[in-house]
Amino acid sequence: MTSEITLFVNPTAGRGRGAHAAQPAAAALRAAGFSVRTVIGEDAGDALRRARTAVDGGTGALIAVGGDGMASLALQAVAGTRTPLGVIAVGTGNDFARALGLPVRDPAAAGALVAAALKEERIRDVDLGRVGATWFGTVLASGFDSRVNDRGNRMRWPTGRFKYDLAMLAELAAFKPVPYRVTLDDGVVHEVDATLVAIGNGSSYGGGMRICADADMSDGLFDVTVVGDCSRTTLLKVFPRVYKGTHLDHPKVTVHRAATVRIEAQGTTGYADGERLGELPLTATCVPGAVRVLGP
């Protein structure tokens, strides 16, 4: 492995924590004997081009410093290659890092872990989801949760997570379950009125909501969580249980496992790793061992 390591930095992540987090991460890597090069793009497209150039140039590892958005960009650069990925998670959600058992919002600890993993070659292969040419590490969300994202992204005020809390309340007042057609790789088609359908490679989204609580990133399968035709009252009762993953035993919740999943629903958007994919229908495929990650 080459000794040059690339730090892939989002300076605005976590209200500026990204820029500060790069410093202890770089210090830990240099103390371990690595040469560190930092990549900061002018925008997402430019950042991805620079990251891909570093990977194509043979960097020893790509270390994403930021939140889930930065981890998602890094996945687009390293998936399907032999370049290992490290994550210094300092964003708002950090669900990809959580799924990998990495430190969250502790850049010094994360930097030390990444440096030790590189020195000791503690690298493992984990699965990723893929929709067309886009890779995702955690959850493809659709339905109520994607409508909240749609509304929140249209709101200019307030800022931060409170914006999405308001968007959730607004959507809750208006939302009705929609007809879904879910096709799994066993050929079985499920037609159901659903509040949401989540396709999980990882277990959580939204900063720790364990919507696909039992998802395993090394089994070659998605966990597909279908929340049925809940009333608003039922949804309000079930929703808090998502943080512990105990919603899965509710009678309105069904879980399937499959390597390929196609979801169809009119007027519904899909988001993967918090990034908008587009309108349904979408087909997701679980790709075993698609990325090499540094970790415990």
UniProtKB/TrEMBL annotation:
Cofactors required: Mg(2+)
One Pfam assignment: DAGK_cat
Listed GO CC annotations: plasma membrane
UniProtKB keywords: ATP-binding, Kinase, Lipid biosynthesis, Lipid metabolism, Magnesium, Metal-binding, Nucleotide-binding, Phospholipid biosynthesis, Phospholipid metabolism, Transferase
Domain DAGKc: residue ranges: 1-134
Gene Ontology BP terms: phospholipid biosynthetic process
Entry superkingdom: Bacteria
SMART domains: DAGKc (SM00046)
GO function term, MF aspect, one: metal ion binding
PROSITE patterns, per database record: DAGK
Keyword check for ATP-binding: yes
InterPro entries registered for this protein in UniProt: ATP-NAD_kinase_N, Diacylglycerol/lipid_kinase, Diacylglycerol_kinase_cat_dom, Lipid_Phosphate_FormReg, NAD/diacylglycerol_kinase_sf, YegS/DAGK_C
Similarity section: Belongs to the diacylglycerol/lipid kinase family.
The name this protein goes by in its record: Sphingosine kinase
Organism of derivation: Streptomyces alboflavus
